[in-house]
Amino acid sequence: MIGEVPNVEAGQEFSTRRLAHGAGVHRPLQAGICGTKKTGAESIVVSGGYKDDEDYGDVIVYTGHGGQDGANNQVSDQSLDDPGNAALVTSYLEGLPVRVLRGWQSDSPYAPATGYRYDGLYRVTSYGSKLGIDGFLVWQFRLEAYDDTPTPQVAQQPELPSALTEPSTVASPPTVEGNETPERITSTVQRIVRSSAVKRRVKAWHDNRCQICDLRIEVPGGSYSEGAHIQALGSPHNGPDTTGNVLCLCPNCHVMLDAGAIVLEDDLTVIRSGEADGTLRTHPRHVIDLECVRQHRERWRR
Amino acid sequence: MIGEVPNVEAGQEFSTRRLAHGAGVHRPLQAGICGTKKTGAESIVVSGGYKDDEDYGDVIVYTGHGGQDGANNQVSDQSLDDPGNAALVTSYLEGLPVRVLRGWQSDSPYAPATGYRYDGLYRVTSYGSKLGIDGFLVWQFRLEAYDDTPTPQVAQQPELPSALTEPSTVASPPTVEGNETPERITSTVQRIVRSSAVKRRVKAWHDNRCQICDLRIEVPGGSYSEGAHIQALGSPHNGPDTTGNVLCLCPNCHVMLDAGAIVLEDDLTVIRSGEADGTLRTHPRHVIDLECVRQHRERWRR
């Protein structure tokens, strides 16, 4: 289950992983990442197992899974083929929310003093690899709290190096190069919009290949497309949120459809800048709602 | 000036247009739309001059300018060449905020009883044309309040047709087809992200043409591109928000850059899926920050 689970609110504490498992917040008893490449990551646990982690409360730099010996040392490179890491890539590409648990073992100031605490929903806003502290490749995922996710409290005094004993340096992120802080930066997070269930179904039918230009954007760890409403939701258009009103498109064709640079004929001919340019690719299970096609075209009749 | 003006908060009332002009909220004394195609729309006034307008408080369906006689009847088609309408298209394409004033003349339940009220920032989330009530083409822009814009109060009892005398039908939007309402629908609003000043400068240098694939997305009323940070802002990447760290890209190349499907060499060769694929197009005033290029490439070294 992606998103909030019933009867659990941000801030709720669990004395053991088994209780968090029982509540459905984080189902595995050992793994830090719950999820698959197909579904995305349901939940993660921040519990100090990876020394490259950084925790700023609203922002977490979370190290992927793998490459460790039994004593939490990196002894080999991590890979995006790891199912947990692949799940976090899918969460990024699909804009899906990830439940975050913090555990007492973490030396983050935001960790609970004992047990585990559910801290609400975050989204993956970027990722990449670097040489970790132990000299092997680690993948790291930047997670940002949603605007309506409560900021976790500083629950414990962290062990600070002597040069950083001011309490004010704990609760707020450290300053980087004097004028930049790793706080929530909305300009990086809105590019990829959460896919609804309807959109995900259409994108799965077309395997992320654009129905107009046939492009499938391949990126390390996955592929990317967008679910695009033919006739926009909301007044004055009032398009329905149904698979018949959604297309699987690359971002470029999505922009052009939304702004009327592309319209469709009733026979699904693609009209680009006033001229016929191929036909919309379809799929046996994906029946296009021609009323939506007609209304969208009508909006751009000029 | 785009966005909030100093010393004016949402909810502030002005007894005349001249006072709203003096405060910088809406500068023209007569025109309903303030702005140009180049800058976008600074502000609009919702004051009942166009009978096709719809006002749901958080959502406004705003009719463009033009085509009227002296008595507010449409007597000819509207055009996107009208500077005010073109300004609203730019606001849509750039994701820019628009100040909204409501005037007493509007028969919207959200209009003030007298004078004018500044109601905060909205964004244009879709647009299109239709045959208006008077039988001529009108362009309409859907504006949605930002999440932190206060919802305007219902200030006057509207004149309702007899079939709709329940007060509850006034404050909330009417139901459409039994299950869809024209309320704020976030899935439609986040596709286009507000361009910062830094991004707008880079996009202007390149005239919205992608520096990687050379595409310029043309739509009715304008063209579209995105400002893309080479090295992402925020921890762990900490890229600077400077023109040297921003590229003008089409949405597809933006997705690929962000997810490491495209990286750049120090000589600005474009590496796509591991193979050289042309060179980044540059501009004399646009000096790329090679440290950002290097750090971004490092993230995807694998």
UniProtKB/TrEMBL annotation, chains A, B:
Region called Disordered, residue ranges: 150-182
Highest taxon of the lineage: Bacteria
Domain YDG per the UniProt entry, residue ranges: 3-145
SUPFAM superfamilies per record: PUA domain-like
Protein name: YDG/SRA domain-containing protein
